[in-house]
Amino acid sequence: MTSQSQDDFVADADADSPREACGVFGIYAPKTPVAHQTYLGLYALQHRGQESAGIAVSDGEAVTVFKDMGLVATVFDDRSLASLPGDLAIGQCRYSTTGSSTWRNAQPVFRGVGETEFALGHNGNLVNTEALAADRGMLPGTVTSDSDLVAEILEMELSADDTLTLEGALEKVLPEFLGAFSFVLLDKRQLIGVRDPQGFRPLCLGKLDTGWVLASETPALDVVGATFIRELDPGEMVVIDENGPRSVRPFDEVDPKLCLFEFVYFARPDSTLYGQGVHRARVRMGEQLANQAPVEADLVMGVPESGIPAAEGYAAASKIPFGQGLVKNRYIGRTFIAPTPELRALGVRMKLNPLTDNIAGKRLVVVDDSIVRGTTTKAMVSMLREAGAKEIHMRISSPPYRWPCFYGMDTGTRGELLAANLTVDEIRDYLNVDSLSYLALDGLKTATGAVNAGFCDACLTGNYPIEIPVDLSKAVLEMDTPTRGTPAGNAKLIDEEAARNG
To answer: Which of 22, 93, 405, 456 is an active site residue?
Structure first.
């Protein structure tokens, strides 16, 4: 897992929410240039990764890759897209979880073996990267990310057997990979999508008049005019060529464990997961929360943007009026350079500003999707107090976030997680709110509308579906902070940890 350099501290106004790994997109449309469509697909998936973006295109003769650091709209323009001719493409927008945020680790990853050229985009995180590298005699430091390792292993297999196709190499090595992976790959003539046996990360299939599309989320299908066909099953590989898609099952066992936070926070509200609309699921979370933790208040407000659907549900179920209490600056990026604590404290104000006329003298129910580190939430509460809020009742549409993720979210160590260090009452006091309630896990799963479909809830329960190697888990799972003491002392430790880690 990686963290920001302490030399160039970057404050993130979304730091109280977990951060995703990436979004992937693939398209095959014979005799149709697809670079611009791939750009649009990545643009629709930009929320899943903001560090780098890239596109690989095949024209049937060669694979060309263009990638760089930055947002999709920054990396690509008409000129760069015009330099990517072809009717077969994949794309990826990245947020790093394994491997640092550098150009070398931007994706798609490219490899060439003889006449075979292929590119790969990855959403997720492998947990056995070091073991796989050691098994194949790779020297430490020669592979810079788990995605790079996957490409390297495929290259080795293709080099060892010149009769092997990319599809054949994948079938051979996929069972060795442990962890979360939704892959899109292409060679000169095929598009391939793969989902791990747990299905930690989403991947769906869509149909164009002239071809087929793979994408992390359904809105990326909508933006290119594709019709949603279905979600890929956990453990499924779909191979698309001139004959259309066909399904391959390279894994002996599957155990569906879609990340529960896809419903809570990651996925766009207009996405479909497990056959359920995400927006409606988030509204139901608010309804569940209102029934579980009622309170007398004058206004229900959501923290933009992902807290708003649950706030709507809370208001509807509680009969308390719904209104806006915070305005989000739509033009600020996710991060800004903040070298001092004073400037870091202004980070929330750069992103959110209170509507004083709606807040002053009111008893507020403030609904958000999660609290990870707590620093942003604390600053937001302070703003509401300054704007004249009479009472603030915090309601969170997920359970306390207590455990790090090893499957594609960047949440840091347990010492950085507020709920791993403080009780709910201590968090209430730390945030300076009048009351605080989290949605119960059963209520959250019920709200998804797919309660028995299979979820990973390791970040909430500590129950990891795939065993985490000791060398990977030790530093992340151990508490960074000293033994628990008084609530005031614990809160001080959290503030100190936040100052060190952002």
So the answer is: 22
